[in-house]
Amino acid sequence: QVQLVESGGGLVQPGGSLRLSCVASGFNFSYDALSWYRQDPGQEREWIATIYTAGGYATYGNSGKGRFTISRDNAKNTVYLQMNNLKPEDSAVYYCYRRGYWGQGIQVTVSS
After folding, report:
1. pLDDT, tens only, 7-38
2. pLDDT in tens, 32-59
C-alpha cells in the first residue's frame, strides 16, 4: 500500500524558510519520480517540482523557480522541498505526489 506522509509545514514570516519532508512507503522509492504540488482553497492544484531517479534531475514550475529546491534521499525513502524567501502568496496546502497517489497535505502559512 502506497503511503506518502508530509511534515515540516507551519507558520513562517515573509522572507523565511521551511523544509518540507515526504516519507514514502509501499513501493520501490528509488525507481520512481516524486513531485510536490500545492493548493489554495478554491484554486486548482499547482505543480511545483518533480525529481527523477537519474542523478537527482529535477524540473520546476514557475511558482518556485529560483526559491524552491526539491531533493531526495533514497536511503530514507524521503523527498524534500526546501523553500526559501517565502512570500505570503506561497501560503497553501502542500502535497507530495507519486504516480496516482497523494499525501494528506500539509499547511504552509506565510504571514507576519
Report:
1. 999 999 999 999 999 999 999 999 999 999 99
2. 999 999 999 889 999 999 999 867 899 9
Inter-residue contact 91 to 34 (CB < 8 Å): no
- Residue 61 has which C-alpha cell? 514550475
Residue 102 burial by CB count (10 A; 0-12/13-18/19+): exposed, middle or buried?
A: middle
List the beta strands (DSSP E) in 2-91.
3-7, 10-12, 18-25, 34-39, 46-51, 58-60, 68-73, 78-83
Q: Which residue has the cell 513562517?
A: 12
According to DSSP, residue 70 is labeled: E
Residues forming beta bridges with residue 78, ordered by sequence position: 23, 73
